[in-house]
């Protein structure tokens, strides 16, 4: 009789037969198989009429689900497609299109032990809340100081990765929220080291600039449903407008900006370096580790960017905008934490950064949700997935120019509310490289306005 | 361990070299400057300390080096928030006030809101401004600092640097002079897999389960955590394969105790504690005896096919090495794995097994030629072990005697020491003694530890006779001096052999005398 068991994120098969999925491991004298092949291996052995003593999974007890999830048409279609693909695959839906509900419905239908993997600790709280509301179930959590395994457990990519050796065999369904994260070299091992036969990836933006999302289809399944933001706009999501306000730097800022940028540019000229792509830039950063001149050039560039991004003139315009939208719910985004705190102290409004204590962050978010705090300023921590309901104005002060970031910041503002027109306003500095960044960012989304 | 951003290494010809901080005057100066800065800035904000680091950077110090030093010092510090009220509560009050009065877009409005909050909380406006974000990391105040020495700090930096590099390791091989039990425990604890091989000593190669499928950094953290336990030894060598993060190529990394030991911070080796009272009792009783066997705890691991066993003890004598393993505690699974491993050993091993384990499974081991089983009840009794050791030794001894018998041995020197002879031939002293005493070469007489030529014996006899002269008596110490002058140590046996008697007056050897043996008075 063959024996199959789980060993630190992999499967071990002992006996007289191998499978096409295994590889002989001379270190232990067994066949070793990647954990994600668990279903394949069982199917292969069954087809080959081979008996196996399977002690792979150790599952938390099942609990009773009382569900009140009702899906919209497109959500139902997405779920059906996923089921047809043998409970595997990626669903691409814009932020706020209710991806969470599709996953919860899947859990309700399958009634299996489920691990939900999310990018941030905030999202753990949010999913736990949803599980409670929609399935009447207390969810467990791993990460952020918690460590409880339940039928439905929520964790972060970091914790799922770090604890793969002992969490890998505890679930039948794995839901990967914001699944594009998974394609990174580290996190992709989550998909490989968990045995869960059922897999659901959720994302608004599947494409990665490094094209690594192609790696995921054999680990999670193909994209089984995809709907663009345009198809939902108006019907399920509120429409929005985008405008851009250019601000001139103050004379002194302009001077600092120019002088610092000149240091950077002349260094590039001297060394005959051209920076056309992100990869070029990465290469350049690499040289700064051993070349003090290159480092000095990089620091000068960073100082220039900081001046442009944190321009005092922008704060004046920001004040005008805040004044203009006094009755609205406003989110302010900035690139640097310094600026977040400057704005928070200047306008006496709540700030959220990675340094904000978790309790305070919860309180601020919930007060923003219930309307007590009309304005919140933040750096990038709210970029993904965290529900910040019905904000109607977004003000962007500086950004990194990535396509995904833009869509998702935007998405955060798009909450369906009657007759509401969401506004996205970007405040940029004139005559600086920021114009280029903002242009790049906006290209991809022009059709939506 | 340091953050990746502070990793400072270089690559040459596919090999990676960390930029270690040698104890140069500049490095000592930087370390000293920072240590003194932390000492003298107790009560000040973290951002002040960090500005001092920037100062060093501006002086031309490598930024990763000084930032790492400062980070290591942060870890020896306690930073606290020094404000009069909880800043979270203060902020809540401010945000609520803002909500009541409306967003302040002018500085007058802002001031008004702060005044309201300040008076409500019985603070000044300045206090409110000061405490607004006083819980931010950079605003925290240094309360306590456990200052390291400069060399400790540099050693910690170098160790941390190496560990940070190892985060990117796909595998690591090492050899070490000891600490095996800790090392193998750690390997298991960190979820790593080992393979052992012999290459001028015992080498252990470490990676993880998933390494079978692809080169991965996944086990780098575990590998890095292992490093301090390896370098705690007096001798070690470490080789690793590193993924160079910029180009994704695999590079080599090597570290040796001879070159690098002094650079790295060293943990103190844990003092060996016994796993059980039974072991401890056995060891102390055994060492109280003079057996000629050297008892060693936690000897070098024994390779058993794909695994290692670290036996509890090794016993060595005359080139024989016998391992001793005490099987006392057990679970079904433990015993099963132990037996699997023991079946593979290729060295001589004596198992001392708790009688409660006298099961069929274990007695299957009885048939293995390398293994011997001995059962004990509450304590291990020495007698059967000594008997076993004796048998093992007799085996060797009789083989050696046979070997000696086959040689034709001729001596020319007047005195032959058994030990020297044994060492020269490469047999045990016991075998040499047994062989030479049983049949001394012609012209020689065998004493307890030496052979003496008959000629030499006669010379000595003459000298003693003269010294005794007419008095018929001679002090033993005088006789011994005469004999030793002739190049022979064993004066008592020589005298006996020559037919003299030693008369003891009390226990003081200074008073002892030599006289003619009355039974041989006719001579």
Polypeptide structure, described:
- The complex is a heterodimer of chains A (449) and B (523).
- By secondary structure, chain A is an alpha/beta fold.
- Chain A has four domains: 2-55, MutS, DNA mismatch repair protein, domain I (3-Layer(aba) Sandwich), CATH 3.40.1170; 73-227, 3-Layer(aba) Sandwich (Rossmann fold), CATH 3.40.50.300; 240-248 and 311-448, P-loop containing nucleotide triphosphate hydrolases (Rossmann fold), CATH 3.40.50; 251-309, no CATH class.
- Helix content of chain A is 40%, strand content 20%.
- Chain A is built from 17 helices and 19 strands.
- Chain A has helices at 38-47, 73-84, 99-110, 121-135, 157-162, 164-167, 188-193, 217-220, 229-232, 251-271, 278-287, 292-309, 312-324, 337-347, 358-369, 403-413, 434-443; strands spanning 2-7, 10-14, 23-25, 30-34, 52-55, 88-92, 114-118, 140-143, 146-148, 152-156, 173-177, 198-203, 223-226, 240-247, 330-334, 351-352, 375-378, 393-397, 422-429.
- Chain A has an eight-stranded mixed sheet. A six-stranded parallel sheet of chain A has the order 14-19-18-15-17-16, with helices on both faces. Chain A has a five-stranded mixed sheet with strand order 3-4-2-1-5, covered by helices on one side.
- In chain A, α2 packs across α3 (99-110).
- Chain A is globular, with a radius of gyration of 25 Å.
- The relative contact order of chain A is 0.11.
- Mean pLDDT of chain A is 83; it is low at 399-403 and 443-449.
- Chain B has 523 residues and is an alpha+beta fold.
- Chain B folds into five domains: 4-81 and 142-153, no CATH class; 87-133; 167-263, Alpha-Beta Plaits, CATH 3.30.70.120; 277-391, Trna Endonuclease, Chain: A, domain 1; 407-523, no CATH class.
- Chain B is 42% helix and 21% strand.
- Chain B has a five-stranded antiparallel sheet. A five-stranded mixed sheet of chain B has the order 10-13-14-15-16, covered by helices on one side.
- In chain B, α1 packs across α7 (150-166), α2 (46-58) runs antiparallel to α3 and α18 crosses α19 (491-497).
- The N and C termini of chain B lie far apart (86 Å).
- In chain B, 29% of the residues are buried.
- Chain A binds chain B through residues 7-10, 23, 25-29, 32, 34, 165, 185-186, 189, 192-193, 286, 289-290, 295, 319-320, 322-323, 326, 341, 344-350, 355, 357, 359-360, 363, 367, 372-375, and chain B through 8, 10, 63-64, 88, 91-92, 94-99, 102-105, 110, 113-114, 129, 132-133, 135-137, 191, 193-195, 208-210, 212-213, 216-218, 246, 306.
